[in-house]
Amino acid sequence: MPLALYHRRMGMPPADRLGIDLHRADLELMAAKRLAVDPAGLTVPQYAALYVLADSPGISGAALARSCQVTPQAMGVLLKHLTERGLVERAPHRWHRNVLETRLTDRGRAALELADERATEVEQCLADEFTEAEQEQFRAFLNRAERALRHAADDLG
Amino acid sequence: MPLALYHRRMGMPPADRLGIDLHRADLELMAAKRLAVDPAGLTVPQYAALYVLADSPGISGAALARSCQVTPQAMGVLLKHLTERGLVERAPHRWHRNVLETRLTDRGRAALELADERATEVEQCLADEFTEAEQEQFRAFLNRAERALRHAADDLG
DNA sequence: TGACAGTCATCAATGCATTGATGATGATGG
DNA sequence: CCATCATCATCAATGCATTGATGACTGTCA
């Protein structure tokens, strides 16, 4: 076997892998958002949780986890940190004593608004790169990709 | 102030935030890849590292980190795990005694090929969702987004 | 009433990723 | 020759996220 072929190509050349471009773009997005929300003392997942919480006060941790697309365990840790820092409050539901209602505190709302101002700049910068029509095309591509990948996951599972 | 406006909208409505769609698609991609490489006993970042390593034997940990778009520290932990499991080997460079040359072991190569077979299926499933022309458009959108976001990060930093 | 399914919270183990700081090494230039 | 700079590895702290397992509670259905 020729040495030149020993380090042979894997199943598909990297340049053809759309997933690589998708992931690279997302890494850049997360890096920018991290920079944006950092001055507010928040991480990106914390910002996401507060953002949902602002529109859904009293939501359960599990429901919040679904909204943020993470597992309940991950959200539990995140909420524990936010509670310790006084950005959210959790209290047992009046009837369903098993669920902990979660709400923003004033400090939490303040941090969210500070973070959202800069996070919005990132989204605006992203939007400004595209015309309205392009944004629609881009969004459609992303949603089709998401759907295709969900089917791929179903097949593999 | 009317109660209906108390939970007021943040800076930009969620439906307008392209970043949300981008991130959701990436989450789905990562979930599918996770399922794909799991039977090989690998995580997605481990698969990525082995993939680069297969084409760049003897690369340094820091260079590998750059290729995989993570910090050297993150790559260090990852390589520590892979070394302990015998999937890669690390040895001091002959001249630059400070750098550790990293190489796949046979077991590492076997795991990579097993993982790559299924990971390629995911990429194929993604590619099959789009025509050739659409793939090029999609890729162009992603690269423009990446560029715009890098500039956004520069502005914020 | 009593079994069952669904939802919620939580503990534990593992792994990824970041910032910040430290120290070793090799190349560059005064 | 020595100072400086860049690169590399590594330690430590913090936080995100996953799977797996456990226990508590609600409501339903037999």
Automatic annotation (TrEMBL), chains A, B:
Superkingdom of source: Bacteria
Location of the HTH marR-type domain: 15-147
Alphabetized UniProt keyword annotations: DNA-binding, Transcription, Transcription regulation
A single MF term (Gene Ontology): DNA binding
One family name in Pfam for this protein: MarR_2
Alphabetized InterPro entries for the sequence: HTH_MarR-typ, WH-like_DNA-bd_sf, WH_DNA-bd_sf
PANTHER family: TRANSCRIPTIONAL REGULATOR, MARR (PTHR42756), TRANSCRIPTIONAL REPRESSOR OF EMRAB OPERON (PTHR42756:SF1)
Entry protein name: HTH marR-type domain-containing protein
Organism: Kitasatospora phosalacinea
